Amino acid sequence: MVSTRKKVESANKVPRLQLANAIRALAMDAVEAANSGHPGMPMGMADIAEVLWNDYLRHSPGNPLWSDRDRFVLSNGHGSMLLYALAYLTGYPLSIEEIKNFRQFGYRTAGHPERDLEIGIETTTGPLGQGLANAIGMALAEKLLAARFNYPEYEIVDHNTYVFLGDGCLMEGISHEACSLAGALGLGKLIAVYDDNGISIDGKTVGWFQDDTPKRFESYGWHVMDNVDGHNPEEIKLAIKAARSVQSHPSLICCKTIIGWGAPNKQGTADTHGAALGEEEVAATRENIGWGHAPFVIPEEIKAAWDFRRGGRALEAEWKKRFERYRSKYPDMAKEFERRMERRLPDHWNELAEECLQTVVAEGCDMATRKASARALDAFAPHLPEMVGGSADLTGSNNTFHSGSKVVTDHNEEGNYVHFGVREFGMAAILNGLSLHGGFIPYGGTFLVFSDYARNGLRMAALMRVQTIFVLTHDSIGLGEDGPTHQPVEHIASLRAMPNMHLWRPADDVETAVAWKAAIERVDGPTSLVLTRQGVPHLSRTSDQVKSIERGGYIYLTSEGDPELTLLATGSELALAISAARLLIGQGRRVRVVSMPCVEVFEEQPVDYKDHILPSAGKRLAIEAGASCSWWRYVSGSGDVIGIDRFGQSAPAKALFENYGFNVESVVSAASRLMSG
Q1: pLDDT digits 0-9 by tens, 220-251
Q2: Which of 45, 8, 9, 39 is nearest to 25 (CA)?
Q3: C-alpha 488 chain-centroid distance
Q4: Which are the catalytic amino acids?
Q5: pTM
Q6: Which residues on neighbouring strands pair with residue 253, listed in sequence order?
């Protein structure tokens, strides 16, 4: 790997301070124009960013998708103008008009960075600490890919992950979860730079944040450099060089900075954190830092000194030559690497997946869907070396460890399974980082009720539309004696309310296999697989019904003629709906049962298909052992929902289902009442 990228000064001999001041000027001008934003962090971290991007960062503005680029994450995403300034200055296709329209409708320069690889934004940040956790996932991805594809003479995966973070990132609990694990896994290609300015929105943090951060990270197993002057380029450069030399531990560089550096009357105060400086202070800052240029004007010599398009092409060209030599010697490995980085499923995937599915159908048996999930993993995973999984200390309960799983440790980077420990939120965000990096389909398990802990990580996966698979078991009061603290009620409805999230709640082993197939094939968003603890019966289906599962909803059972009543059910309640329907049909009623394992996929179907499955004729009764609110759009005013809109109790599952009305008698009674109404 090239150790440095540029000399201390550019070929134009532009002083470093002027290069950094270009960032400061763009940041304060953009925030001033928007009268909204955070100028203080970009102004305070400008010197650090200048050294990193001009001396060390390996990237290619002309090809932001280059697989061996360094990853850069701005975890303290409120300082987004730092990233936009860097993208503009170094030659990414981000125009000055975009910067002039910072935080305005329809422009790429959003208030917090939103994933946009074309302009070098690797991940969406803003919820503090998550960018740091994403970066840990990216560094883990690099380590695993390097172990899989590198040979001593051909290292085609060899890049660093850099992340900027602030006090807020370190105060958020996710930083403890993720950084503790990063130390345990020995992610030596991860370099975090801490903007230690002692200021947050409420003022000086000394009143509420007195952690000894260096000792904290040393206890995690990180390599720590303390008291680096964040406005001294030589100190910064030496610190980054030292961090890059440590390959056995992640590194934290603690940089002492002044927020809003250069603003003579406001620097070092919370006044620069989250508001425009004001016209007078902007003018005073220009004079103070010696920036005599009009708003949004970057002199050509400074822009030329920053421009890295040629340098990026040279770095990428050198890598491509190495990769072609690699391809000559290891053609199959090269082909596999390209497939994975291009997010393509293996050749003949459709045939392989269908064969796996038919095996599940043929060997169908009664089991909990969490166990059916393990069986599906055993079927699919051997064909998908890109699958990397784990669990938040619930491996035996989530059944996420399949027959081909091998544990990843600091000394075994050739594994494909991570013991995340009791770190649900950290796990979710690290999984997102693995997905963002490329080369992996990540999945991770916990109990559905603990999706509350991980929720913002799930939300960010949905917001970014990344392929992350969340295995959420123990999906209802059916988990039994652990009681209401562990029994999810509102969680399914809550996740269904999340845009871009596909939630599958399969009824048996066959639907579970289809759900896994759908999650594996869905590259434009996350999937939540919601699975039972308790056993459920295997349900017989025709081949057409098996095929229809992938449409999210299908007719499982129907009587002749237009239905008087349609029963909609998911998960463990489908078998209950079928039993009730057969009893009602035996009484001469026209009843249909619709299985709806994934509402979101069903809603994507053509209108004529949805109308066929759910005809307007007759009444509708939805049955699900969870909050009823997500079902009223299907039953409207003429139907009803059998759900749970209160918390559970500690008791055996069978007793709970009986007492909460999830039995044939209750369903038949509700159905009869509707049909006679």
Answers
A1: 999 999 999 999 999 999 999 999 999 999 99
A2: 39
A3: 22
A4: 424
A5: 0.97
A6: 193, 225
